[in-house]
Amino acid sequence: MGSSTGRHLLCLASPACLLFAAAVLLAMPGLTAARTRRYSFNVTMATVTRLCVTKSVPTVNGQFPGPKLVVREGDTLVIRVTNNINNNVTFHWHGIRQVRSGWADGPAYITQCPIRPGGSYVYRFTVTGQRGTLWWHAHFSWLRATLYGPLVILPPRGVAYPFPKPHREVPLLLGEWFNADPEAVIKQALQTGGGPNVSDAYTFNGLPGPTYNCSSSNDTFKLRVRPGKTYLLRLINAALNDELFFGVANHTLTVVQADASYVKPFAATALVIWPGQTMDVLLTAAANNPPSRSFAIAVAPYTNTVGTFDNTTAVAVLEYYGAATSAAALRSLLLPSLPAYNDTGAVANFSASFRSLASAQYPARVPRTVDRHFFFAVGLGADPCQSPVNGTCQGPNNTRFAASMNNVSFVMPRTSLLQAHYQRRYNGVLAANFPAAPRTPFNYTGTPPNNTFVTHGTRVVPLSFNTTVEVVLQDTSILGAESHPLHLHGYDFYVVGTGFGNYDASNDTAKYNLVDPVQRNTISVPTAGWVAIRFVADNPGWLPALYFYLHLKREFL
Known about the structure:
The chain has about 550 residues and is mainly beta. The protein has five helices and 34 strands.
């Protein structure tokens, strides 16, 4: 490993999250920031009441959700974090490329050691070549259940949006509320080896709305609009575990951006957004005499798991100015027509609508040739029952659930991987032998193999700087086929192909879109299907690259 200068190192994570982390050891030309914007994050406990449950939750500056960060493309952000809670904490700036600033990315034990109680840490990074909606969140255990907020990147001054200028811009964070302490929920799941208990409600900007017991009009987010005006909704799925359908009754939405990348505008009445994804949509209020003065905005889950999930619907309100929606009227609002919770076809059709803008100003620089191919079989496996609770484990057949990629489940290091690289101390921390494909191929979406146990390790893939990479992510049915959201740290990627069943290179490659595929940082591997992504490994610094989101209560941080 000592001779790895000039390479990336990509590492798989996590027994829960599956992380595949990156290191680039080359320098790039310096970048000049347009302006430095400074924020202070005071992480402290605050009392919050939802669903008649009052509890103390971690917050930033006493706010739930946390404060909005606003920058322009080219600006430098400096955020000083002071940790005044009893947990370790770090923060991730979700979707920021972190060019030459990998130490500011935030994943605990990957790019930094956690910020201990009473400690502080300064994150400093420049926003390079990005504009749109991103977000920030805690990146330690399940603290991001309440530690999250929007990160809005405006274009440089004098540069217009490639769509009509909206009358107003509104961040809309879709989250979850747990009556229990989320840290206790994940702790119990890790002890038992089963899936964690589900959330009690979905939320709009922290508010669950009128569809839940003991939730009043004061707990309902209201978006007030003027007739004929157009609004830019900056949607963020900050939920821990849930893919969500979204819609506004009697209104059509126009999608214009995904994960801070412009897309060819398209209309939709129902959207689906995965955990970690962002989406900018235009909503135009009726010009004259709408059929009502108040309309429901709703989210509901999409899932195909055989396990339990939060099968509820949360509601916010679109109110035309002059309306005053009473508590009784809130509960009788007509909901938007959303697909059934398991409508995979609707999800596939919506996802297929995304295309990069691919204009002269915003080109789609899709790698046409590939230097390194990877095939990663992702999904759930099992670990033997060790240290059982009450003599048993709650995974299948008295085992413990374990997420894996190519049958490798990540072992969290005790030394930050970036620190190990800086000190050139790799032995005992990581191994550069992660498999580029499954050791033993099988019918990934068919009958599962008899042995479902996974292996463990902190294993990485070395990549030379500027390598063009293709990764095919294949869902498996080992312990039940289901979709898997994944996020790429430090890079955007192009989604060049997707399909159902087992990936077939001889046929599926010919169907790739290499002209205007959508550019994202978070994607979902479809249920019993596959997705192919491409990117150029051109970002210096040790950055986590691919990891599973906390998904369907089985893959844990």
